Design the sequence.
């Protein structure tokens, strides 16, 4: 067999080559972003939504001078501590975790009065709970009147957000969800797990497949582009594994299935539209180059250096600048590939600062 | 015939607290209030923050709770076991709700108090969660919570806590009094909406009720016939922006006497 001189891979950039892009690069310097479809200006209003990981994006935008857009900030009489406790500013509006593409689509429809779920309110001993943001308010709402008024104002804030945001960063988190048997309304968490009551005649498990996830996201984004034609969208996939699966299979297999579907849908949707970009935070955290070092001991929570790697990559490509919290110490935070898993040695932010509100974690408590 | 010796044990009430106690002391010192029976007496040794300075509860180097030194001194003068039945009456921390929202210092806010949903709501104001407002006021009452628990263990014949009077309806009156007393020197300061002030007071009453219930302390929410139909302090009892006058003190002391006379051990 003679030598080959015209192999097309020879002309490809280093980023296409595992040995050059991964093996030869310090783990901390791995950058899987080859190009972005658009840049961002500090003045552009960025809204975030999605799973727990989306909150890290919000946190960095706040601390790094990005324009984190919040239309439901709460009244300052409450002070920062109570505002945080009641989830003001945790998300761009007080919608809580949006884990599935169907949840996003239904939120848009609910905010514009196009869908009114049959499941209106959960009454608990402590107060009234919104089935679609069950952990948004510690102790629930004090009265039915307060709940209804708050939801009305919340939807107004969601509409303002969708109409005025310049950039929408959506982090896809799960395919598994629970829906109402009455009208298909999707809950962020299984009723009865931490709050509410599970009733098999009213609630059923649903694992959204590729087609369903794709169709929901496509519809949601089309609706957002109708509302806000100049909108730019960045899609990411949460690297956080499932707390538990309702499928009759191992949670690891379910995690792989869910994340594969979400990653494929995000890629497919972004591929077809110049206004939509995919950002590989999932790859940065889960990539084997870090030897699992971007996960905490539970192998689920993402470490602060991991989040920092994601965010400095995002800032470098979209804003064209380094982030202030990328201090030199970070450069040693993730060891180079040949040094093994000494990766989570540097925690630059306190765990409190990095705290994320994750409704899904209530499953953990409910199961124990 | 031998003289009858009364077997009725005298009841003495020791009243202490912050600024709202002035109305009581004025009623007492001026003779506007006189007890209905000789078996009832009272003392008001701690009145206002000058006589009753510092936190209600302090913590020593080992983190142990200690009752405020001035109050402890009074308690030593009036121990629970004596010739009389001794009752304690707290009128502490009545202005926690005013500290939160007497003046509007930012964007307008409003909220819904459970049980009082019919009260008017300002549509143009931010709706804040009742739970958040409650939490805000509760944080100012941590010392009172600890104090009530400590006092309830000391063996007094009874302990009661009197709520502060409800807010004054007329916002202009409140603003004028604040300016007169140089409590606001900014002519642009805005006194909060009257219903927001009333809701803050109602929230405080719910908190105080919980604190007292948990400590086994009798909570007296309102002095009868001192509020108007809408629930604000009736005009004849107004003194300044947040306090009631001596007439209110008379009503409160009369109420206190009735409670103590009827106290069911």
Sequence:
């Amino acid at each position: 067999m003679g030598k080959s001189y015209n192999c097309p891979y020879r002309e490809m950039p280093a980023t296409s080559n595992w040995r050059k892009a991964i093996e030869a690069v310090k783990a901390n310097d791995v950058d899987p972003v080859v190009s972005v479809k658009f840049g961002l200006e500090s003045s552009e209003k960025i809204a975030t939504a999605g799973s727990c990981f989306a909150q890290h994006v919000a946190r960095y935008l706040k601390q790094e001078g990005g324009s984190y857009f919040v239309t439901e900030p709460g009244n300052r009489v409450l002070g920062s501590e109570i505002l945080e406790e009641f989830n003001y500013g945790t998300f761009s509006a007080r919608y809580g975790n949006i884990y599935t593409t169907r949840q996003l689509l239904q939120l848009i429809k609910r905010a514009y009065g196009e869908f009114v779920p049959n499941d209106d309110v959960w009454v608990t001993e402590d107060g009234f709970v919104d089935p679609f943001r069950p952990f948004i308010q510690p102790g629930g709402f004090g009265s039915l009147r307060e709940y209804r008024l708050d939801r009305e104002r919340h939807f107004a804030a969601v509409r303002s957000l969708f109409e005025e945001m310049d950039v929408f960063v959506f982090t896809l988190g799960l395919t598994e969800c629970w829906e109402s048997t009455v009208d298909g309304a999707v809950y962020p968490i299984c009723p009865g797990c931490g709050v509410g009551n599970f009733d098999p005649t009213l609630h059923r498990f649903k694992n959204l497949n590729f087609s369903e996830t794709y169709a929901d996201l496509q519809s949601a984004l089309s609706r957002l582009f109708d509302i806000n034609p100049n909108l730019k969208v960045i899609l990411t996939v949460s690297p956080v594994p499932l707390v538990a699966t309702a499928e009759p299979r191992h949670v690891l297999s379910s995690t792989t299935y869910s994340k594969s579907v979400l990653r494929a849908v995000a890629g497919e949707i972004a591929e077809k539209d110049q206004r939509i970009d995919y950002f590989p935070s999932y790859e940065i955290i889960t990539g084997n180059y870090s030897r699992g070092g971007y996960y905490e001991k539970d192998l689920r929570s993402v470490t602060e250096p991991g989040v920092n790697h994601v965010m400095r990559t995002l800032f470098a490509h979209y804003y064209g600048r380094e982030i202030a919290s990328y201090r030199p110490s970070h450069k040693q935070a993730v060891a180079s590939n040949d040094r093994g898993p000494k990766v989570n040695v540097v925690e630059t932010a306190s765990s409190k600062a990095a705290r994320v509100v994750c409704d899904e974690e209530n499953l953990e408590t409910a199961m124990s | 015939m031998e003289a009858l010796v009364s077997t009725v044990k005298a009841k003495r009430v020791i009243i202490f607290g912050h600024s709202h106690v002035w109305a009581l002391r004025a009623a007492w010192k001026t003779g506007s209030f006189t007890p209905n029976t000789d078996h009832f007496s009272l003392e008001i040794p701690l009145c206002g923050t000058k006589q009753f300075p510092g936190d209600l509860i302090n913590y020593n180097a080992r983190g142990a709770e200690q009752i405020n030194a001035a109050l402890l001194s009074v308690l030593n003068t009036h121990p629970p076991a004596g010739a009389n039945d001794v009752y304690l009456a707290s009128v502490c921390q009545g202005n926690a709700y005013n500290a939160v929202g007497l003046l509007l210092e930012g964007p307008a806010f409003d909220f819904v108090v459970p049980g009082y949903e019919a009260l008017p709501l300002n549509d143009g104001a931010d709706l804040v969660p009742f739970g958040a407002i409650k939490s805000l006021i509760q944080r100012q009452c941590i010392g009172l919570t600890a104090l009530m628990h400590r006092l309830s263990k000391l063996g007094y014949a009874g302990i009661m806590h009197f709520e502060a009077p409800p807010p004054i309806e007329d916002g202009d009156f409140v603003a004028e009094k604040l300016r007169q007393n140089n409590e606001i020197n900014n002519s642009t300061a805005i006194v909060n909406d009257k219903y927001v002030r009333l809701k803050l007071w109602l929230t405080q009453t719910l908190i105080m009720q919980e604190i007292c219930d948990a400590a086994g302390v009798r909570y007296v929410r309102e002095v009868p016939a001192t509020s108007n139909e809408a629930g604000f302090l009736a005009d004849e009892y107004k003194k300044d922006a947040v306090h009631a006058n001596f007439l209110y003190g008379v009503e409160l002391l009369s109420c206190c006497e009735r409670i103590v006379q009827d106290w069911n051990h």
User: Anything to note?
Assistant: Chain B has one domain: 11-260. The domain at 11-260 of chain B is CATH 3.40.50.1110 (Rossmann fold). Chain B is about 35% helix and 15% strand.
